[in-house]
Amino acid sequence: MSSSPCTQVFASAEEIADAAAQQFVELANERQGRFAVALAGGTTPRRTYELLAGKKFRDHVEWSKVHLFFGDERCVRQDHPDSNYRMAHEALISQVDIPHSNVHPINGHGDPATNAAHYEAELREYFRNSTKPAFDLVLLGLGEDGHTASLFPQTEALGVTERWVIENWVEKLQSYRITLTVPAINSGAHVTFLVAGANKAPAVSGVLNGRVQTENLPAQLIKPEAGTLTWLLDSRAASLLQKD
Ligand code: 6PG
């Protein structure tokens, strides 16, 4: 059973990004061999990726041992503005000396089920010595509705346990997403949420302090089996958390 979550509250989103970059560098340097990270999508993690590519952190990472995966992807081409790969490529991948073969995008173009199966096969090949995807670090965001990765409320993916990657129809978006499943995330050694903004405060409070309602707040499903769980929040996103 994992330890209880570690919640850290910062004054700003910039400080969250810096803390996340520091965790990335520390964990990468703790690993002797390959360092496998599942990147979060959306907008919040972009600054973390930019900092990792910046002069404070870039040269403190041995990029040749880092393998970048994605926690989820929109079903769009890689050059689409909504692509999580495009965001990470602009902010980080194109800015550091990481071997092309160490970057593992999810193909968002074409048939979602086929693309999910292909990504799962790629993960199973990479983690071939393990029965689970043993990410060293999984970065996650949180939606206002309590979703994380592309595990949206009331969607099929929430109950999938036998797959590592699944295509998920999201009714409210009227589109498919491709996402790591709950067990794939929960097998991570370190799982870290990056959440900023007052608009996220109700979801943060509901997920961390509210009654268990995982169908409505899927981020409640994120409980690493043996890894650490860290919430990096800014004061606005944490504003509804009960003071200790
Ligand atoms: C995505 C993300 C998603 C994101 C949240 C928060 O593909 O959109 O995986 O889970 O982390 O929606 O997004 P923001 O950081 O943009 O608020």
Described by strand count, sense and barrel closure, the largest sheet is:
6 strands, parallel
Radius of gyration computed on alpha carbons: 17 Å
Helix content: 25-40%
What is the approximate shape? globular
Q: What is the topology, as strand order, of the major beta sheet?
A: 1-9-8-5-2-3
List the secondary-structure elements in sequence, H or E. Answer: EHEHEEHHEEEHEHE
User: Uncertain spans, ≥5 residues at pLDDT below 50?
Assistant: none
The small-molecule ligands in this entry are: 6-phosphogluconic acid
Give the strand content: 15-25%
The total count of strands amounts to: 9
Oligomeric composition of the shown chains: single chain
**Structural class given helices, strands, pairing?**
alpha/beta
Mean pLDDT, all residues: 97
Number of helices: 6
- End-to-end C-alpha gap: 24 Å
General description of the model:
By secondary structure, the protein is α/β, with parallel strands linked by helices. It contains six helices and nine strands; from the N terminus they run E-H-E-H-E-E-H-H-E-E-E-H-E-H-E. The strands form two sheets. The chain has a six-stranded parallel beta sheet with strand order 1-9-8-5-2-3, with helices on one face. A three-stranded antiparallel beta sheet has the order 4-7-6. Strand 6 and strand 7 form a beta hairpin. Helix 1 packs across helix 2. The longest helix has 18 residues. The protein is globular, with a radius of gyration of 17 Å. It binds 6-phosphogluconic acid. 6-phosphogluconic acid binds next to loops.
